[in-house]
Amino acid sequence: MVSFEEARSIILSNVNACGVERVHLQDAVGRILAEDASAPWDMPLWDNSAMDGYAVRSADCAEIPCKLKVTGFLPAGVRADGVTVEAGCAVRIMTGAPTPKGCDAVVPVEETDDGQDLVTLNETVVCGQHIRLNGEDVRAGVVFVRAGTLIRPPEVNMLATFGMALVPVFRRPVVAILSTGDELIELGRTPGPGEIVNSNILSLAAAVQETGAIPRIIGIARDNLESHREMLREGLKADALITSAGVSAGDCDFVRDVLDELGASQLFWKVGVKPGGPTAFALHGTTPIFSLPGNPVSTMITFEEFARPALLKMMGHSHVLRPLFKAVLSEDIKKKPGKIQIVRIRLERENGRWLASSAGNQQTAILRTMVDATALAILPAESTRFKAGEEVDVHFYGSHIDLI
Question: Residues with Cβ < 8 Å from 229, sequence gap 6 or more?
Fold first, then answer.
């Protein structure tokens, strides 16, 4: 049995980013940029007005109010060739229009009387005001988005500004998902005696999809070697494989034996964590295989702590673990020594600190507590008692980071 930390280290040291593909910019949102993006030109390409108003010479505006003759008009989208601001004059200008020769300041229209032939300036004019200078944002040749960056709307805007319709991103891995057990039935049927709806496969597919990877549901391996061989062979065609149940020591737990038969190399079996002890990790060539427990709570928690970080790394993410922070327990907790315990909790903000309370019964058969949990508390292996008022490490679970 390996420790919680050792298991993570083994997994992350044995997975690598998938290959690179070029996708349309709109499809790159949420993906990781695979190559540095360098500016092919200056931005802005020319000095231009930051306001609707008047292009002026600041030397003509030393005394306020000041009256200037309006000698031209520059809308956005035109060139300023041949347009000059002469002494004692102003050129009406729109936001984004190139500043004309002789101009060293733009006066916003709201600081004038909005005159058409003769304009009165009512506010002090400072040289350089309201002018966006050529290259002040990005110079040609400068890397403006680095490889490894998550592409968000700001990155999309910047990449589009430089005309990059296709961008190189790390490929999204296809993740095969397989459940095991004769007791499982497909969604849509009402379970009879001894039957259970195969909910794990759908929650795992949802969790895979939430990371940005592509889930591929294989189905159910029945409790015989032939079914396991067929299903596992199919699953190993994907970039990664996740199995649910069948990794304990029961008579019908065939996953490890069949994976061994198919040439997989087992890196660990069993982890010092509760829930989720019967978790295994193997490699088939470079394909990672996550064999998770069959209990739904254990399945989801072990995916969160072990499979999710690995899939993020495969997609090029550099920060793959959820950040830990401190929360104050609102109640006592007891645990046995020897294993890290992961507790489903609810978080509330009070007087500038986080308060953590149990999300309910912590038995791994109680699925409702996963629905009610907003975070998970990570309790150290050797500690046994945690008193109300004591701080513990926690991290958000799922999308509940919006609580901040």
Answer: 258, 261, 262
> In the chain, what are the domain boundaries?
2-17+172-314, 22-42+142-170, 48-132, 325-403
How far is the CA of 151 from the CAs of 124, 174, 214, 363, in angstroms? 42, 20, 18, 39
Residue keyed to tokens 């509760």: 274
11, 306 Cβ separation under 8 angstroms: yes
Locate tokens 């500004």: which residue?
Answer: 161
Q: Which CATH superfamily is domain 325-403 in?
A: MoeA, C-terminal, domain IV (2.40.340.10)
Task: Choose among 143, 191, 151, 123: nearest CA to 23.
Answer: 151
- Residue 50 is given by DSSP the state S
Report the C-alpha gap between 54 and 112 in whole angstroms: 9
Q: What fold, for 2-17+172-314?
A: Molybdenum Cofactor Biosythetic Enzyme; Chain A (3.40.980)
pLDDT in tens, 350-394: 989 999 999 999 988 888 999 999 999 999 999 999 999 999 999
Q: Which of 277, 228, 287 shows the shortest CA–CA distance to 255?
A: 228
Contact 345, 330 (CB under 8 A): no
Give the per-residue pLDDT at 249: 58
Question: What pLDDT shows up at residue 402?
Answer: 47
Q: Within the chain, which residues score under 70 in pLDDT?
A: 246, 248-252, 399-404
pLDDT of residue 189: 87
CA atoms of 57 and 87, how far apart (whole Å): 7
Q: Give the pLDDT confidence score for residue 196 in this predicted structure.
A: 86
Class of domain 48-132: mainly beta
- Reduce the DSSP state of residue 220 to 3 states and report it: strand
Q: What is the pTM of this model?
A: 0.89
| Residue 11 tokens, joined | 């997994």
| DSSP bridge partners of 357 | 346
